[in-house]
Amino acid sequence: MKNLLLTTAFSLALATPVFAAGTHGGGHGEAKAESHAADHAAMMLVGQPGKAEGVDRTLEVSMRETDDGTMIFEPSTFEIQPGETIRFKVRNDGELEHEFVIDTIEQNVVHKAQMAQMDMEHDDPNSIRLDPGADGEVIWTFANEGTFEFACLIPGHYESGMHGPINVGMKMAQANMEYTKGTVKKVDAKGGKVTINHGPLLNLDMPAMTMVFRADEALIARMSEGQDIEFVAEPVKGKLTVTQLK
Ligand SMILES: [Cu+2]
């Protein structure tokens, strides 16, 4: 019954894209009364369940408690492009039960309040609940730009640190990007590869060295051997790739 309702809600949400715009400003006070309507919009806003064959990237997430009494997700933030389908491989490395829920910040507030009254176990496609030592996955397609949230809504866990932002959007991702200086050593246009002697890649936590990067045709056409460049590299489908060139 629950699944049927969700499916219906979801197709309604898909059919009414205009709906999403209205909920951004919605205050938390009226959240409860609006929760049915908000459910439709929230599914819309954060995206939709993804298909395994459509996965663009796999991101690993660890959940655990720390010695100083906090509870954490590692990593603590995600940068995602609109339209990307992400497989979150979630592992509970802690000693308590934890969950991984993706939603709007507003919806997490609503669900958290419900969980505080009664520890409900969700089994929706945007969440997974794991026993200590267990792992699982959530496959999700992020449709819209914006800041969403991943969280554990088990009573007390959110407050202990178990939440973080999911930034979906080119602009936000680029704002965090720093260009790295480098010298092109070799260009393999056919192979879609370029060898660059580069400075530290801060976003990847990598020291200065010479490495082979992937790059698309348009970027490769702008690079030649011996050229000094400023570029941004990111992992794309598991391969280090030049994604920006000044
Ligand atoms: Cu938790």
TrEMBL record:
Specify the superkingdom: Bacteria
Gene Ontology molecular function, alphabetical: copper ion binding; electron transfer activity
Q: Which InterPro entries match?
A: BlueCu_1, Cu-binding_ET, Cu_oxidase_CS, Cupredoxin, CusF_Ec, CusF_sf
List residues of the Blue (type 1) copper domain: 65-168
Q: PROSITE patterns under this entry?
A: MULTICOPPER_OXIDASE1
Entry keywords, A to Z: Copper, Metal-binding, Signal
Record's SUPFAM superfamilies?
Cupredoxins (SSF49503)
Q: Does the keyword Iron apply?
A: no
Signal peptide coordinates: 1-20
Entry protein name: Cupredoxin
